[in-house]
Structure formats: C-alpha cells, structure tokens
Design a protein that fits this description.
The chain is α+β, with helices and mostly antiparallel strands and 332 residues long. Helices cover 53% and strands 11% of the residues. A four-stranded antiparallel sheet has the order 2-3-1-4, with helices on both faces. It is globular and about 55 Å long. The chain starts with a helix and ends in a 13-residue tail after the last strand.
Length: 332
Amino acid sequence: MKRWLGKAEVVLGNHSDRLNAINIFPVADGDTGTNLYLTVRAAAGALGNGPEAPDTGNDVGSVLARAGQAAMEQARGNSGTLFAVFLCAAAEPLAGKSRLSAPLLATALNRAQIRAWSALSEPVSGTMLSVLEAAAHAAQAVDATQNGDDSNHALGLALDATVEAAYQAVVRTEDELAPLHEARVVDAGGVGMLLVLDCLRSAVLGEELQDELLDGLHGYKLQDPHIHEHMPADDGVEVMCTIELSPLNAAILRQRLDEMGDSVIMSQVGGASRNEDDDDDSPVDASYRWRVHVHVPDPEPAVALIRSLGEPTDIAVSQLALPRDAMGGHDD
C-alpha cells in the first residue's frame, strides 16, 4: 500500500500538466492534475518511509485509513476530495487485514464507489465517478467467477480486469459529457483515477505501468494544446473547510449550499464524536467531522452559513478563473 501511494505520487506528478490541459469539467480551470497530485502527495506523506514513519504493522486498512485521513484534511478541488473519499472508504473493509485479495479488492472498490457517488450532491456520469464504478463492477465480476478465491492469482486477474474496465470507462467519458464531446477530450479526473488504479496494479503485482493505455485517449498527447485555456472563464470561487456537525446540521448545510452554488461535496472525516457529558448513545446526538467543498459566485454567504452551524477549520477560498502554477498555485 505504501509502494502504491508512493508510485501514484510520482506518476500523478509526472502527468499533472497533461491532466490540467484537458480539465474542462465541471469547471475549465486547468487544475485537476495539480489537485490530484497534491492530494495523493499528502496521502503518501502521511505514511512516510523514515524512522518517524507511523507503525501500522501489517494492517492494510490501518495504512489506508491513515493515508485517507491526511488526504481528506489536505484535499484539493473536486478531484482531490473524491480521491480522499475513495481512500477512506476503501480502507474500511480492509481493517485488520494483512494482505489484499480479490474478494477484498472487490469489496473495497464497491464501498469506495458508493461513498464517492453519495458524497456529491449532484453526481454526474462521465467523470471519475464512472471510472471508479466500472472498476468496482469489474473486480466484483472476477471475484464472482473465481468463487471468492483469495489467492494471488485471482488478485492478479481482478487487478487486470479493474484497470481494463477503468480504461474503457475513461474512453466513454468523451461521449457522456457534452463539453468533453465538443472539445474531443476525455475526462481529466477519470484519467487520474485510471492512473491511480494502474499504480495499484503495478505495485501489487510488481509489474510495469501500462503506459500504452494513454496512447489513444483524445487530448492526452504531449503536443496537444491546453484545452481549458480556450474555455469561458468561471467567475466564481471554490470554498473548502473542515467542520464538526450533527447529521441534522450536515443535511441543512448540504441543502443550503446546493441552493447557493454547485459542485457540493460533503464527506465524513473519521468516526462520530460525542460530548463527554452526554450519556445518550443516540446517533442523532453524535457529531461528525466533515470535509466540505462548494463552488459559489460569492464566498461570504457560504462562509457565513458554515460558521452559523459550527466552527470550521482550514477554510480555503480560491478564485476558479485564475491561472494556476503547474505544481500548486491553487489554494483550494
């Protein structure tokens, strides 16, 4: 798992410019590659490799949970937030497990795709959500045909099928979203998820990355122009924060943010917390930490709403239309 995330950090760093170049949905702001890279870097950095590295033993779920927590806290943009959701969700069924297997991969990917779809107020097909969903279904299909075989051979078959399904889903994104079809490009976030999954396959099986997967993707050749530079500018802003809320207040916040803007993503960070003086075990009285993301025309009403419901931390507001530095000028 550490090797996977380390490899993903390097690969997304190398591919960030090309991902930025074709980033036109949901906002043509050219930062999907940067956002994914910085979020994956946070995940990989939380595990470390030196003497200060946390001791997670041989617990696969513990490793991914720690990485997912760091990714969620430092997530950048839509794509980074969804990647963090993916990691946190995938970690849950792997808790206490010492190795990955085909049945566990299928369960983890299925949990991740369900959580990612539900994190968005208005999930859209033709994005990294579709790629993750296709990958999960492929892993489940292999697990079914192998009758729950937990051998390394079955895991290899499942990983091969997962990456192939992810690739086919990326190809389909071009015709699933009108802006992508008109620009003749595939979805940037979808390609990023494909790269992440191919890194997983490579790390687990000890094989090279399948770079040839990228050869036929429209808009992905190195000499292709940066498509997003010719798209209409978005005058809105992106607001992100972490906040502790009850389930009721979380529902209120999501509804109100949906009314104010779009690209609303809310996902839990960690488990429930309770007031020490509260002896009631009712889930209604529990509170949860949430990572919140929204695009709005003006940040002040959104920030005021968030503050009215709790005490947010790590508030970041950034202009969607500003040009970004290739490695991190975007402070979302």
